[in-house]
Amino acid sequence: xxxxxxxxxxxxxxxxxxxxxxxxxxxxxxxxxxxxxxxxxxxxxxxxxxxxxxxxxxxxxxxxxxxxxxxxxxxxxxxxxxxxxxxxxxxxxxxxxxxxxxxxxxxxxxxxxxxxxxxxxxxxxxxxxxxxxxxxxxxxxxxxxxxxxxxxxxxxxxxxxxxxxxxxxxxxxxxxxxxxxxxxxxxxxxxxxxxxxxxxxxxxxxxxxxxxxxxxxxxxxxxxxxxxxxxxxxxxxxxxxxxxxxxxxxxxxxxxxxxxxxxxxxxxxxxxxxxxxxxxxxx
Length: 283
What we know:
Layout lengths: L25 H11 L8 H9 L5 E4 L10 E5 L5 H7 L7 E6 L4 H7 L6 E5 L5 H11 L6 E5 L8 H11 L12 E7 L3 H14 E5 L1 E4 L2 E6 L8 E8 L12 H4 L16 H10 L1
Parallel strand pairs: 2-3, 2-5, 3-4, 5-6
Antiparallel strand pairs: 1-8, 6-10, 7-10, 8-9
Helix pairs in contact: 2-3, 6-7
Keywords: Methyltransferase, Transferase
GO molecular function, one term: S-adenosylmethionine-dependent methyltransferase activity
InterPro entries: Methyltransf_16, SAM-dependent_MTases_sf
């Protein structure tokens, strides 16, 4: 199955105010969708992630995306059209390196849409493919990864286990030297809770995560970033659970999505962080 061209799914461009021209315009997306399928569309959660990367002047975020201003090592998974990477590129300097990744057949779209340099590098990284991940690790060495960026990647059920595998690979040796080294940022729009909640139940087994909060610089209450949008949308910041570094990742995707042996036990495990956050957001 070619996941970039799913049957019976009609894909249309998105275009919020302020994003009407250039490589991510409606016209550019239409052409990219014809050539690359769903990878050519700018999916909705990318726009809220752009705000987190490049905050409006009257907003502050907790936690901030970057706590250091140089030497950052970033991998973006499932970069698609590259709109998030293009925004990130404006925040980087010559001491930083960002790997912008997707399926090998999508990399030409990223190369077309981004200004490549020693700082911005397009690389293939199919989810769950450890060989692809190891190639990036060899380029990173000896520097540890500092950030993983994901935008709107939680959708097709049969891709959830490979996605989780990649996140675990990228937060393990040789990418990190210590559990706290790498910060994982995920923007997410709810489309089908029944299909997507299993991912978050397993993600929470391996990662501790919480939503990004936003406050106006003029004062007022802190709110979850994404409150007020038409569809429930989140930006989560996560780090690997320290105890998970002693666990074995099951070779079988079914076991991965059922939490089998995740904690060195045959008893399936799960986590309810996402359900708790969802209930809190509805109050």
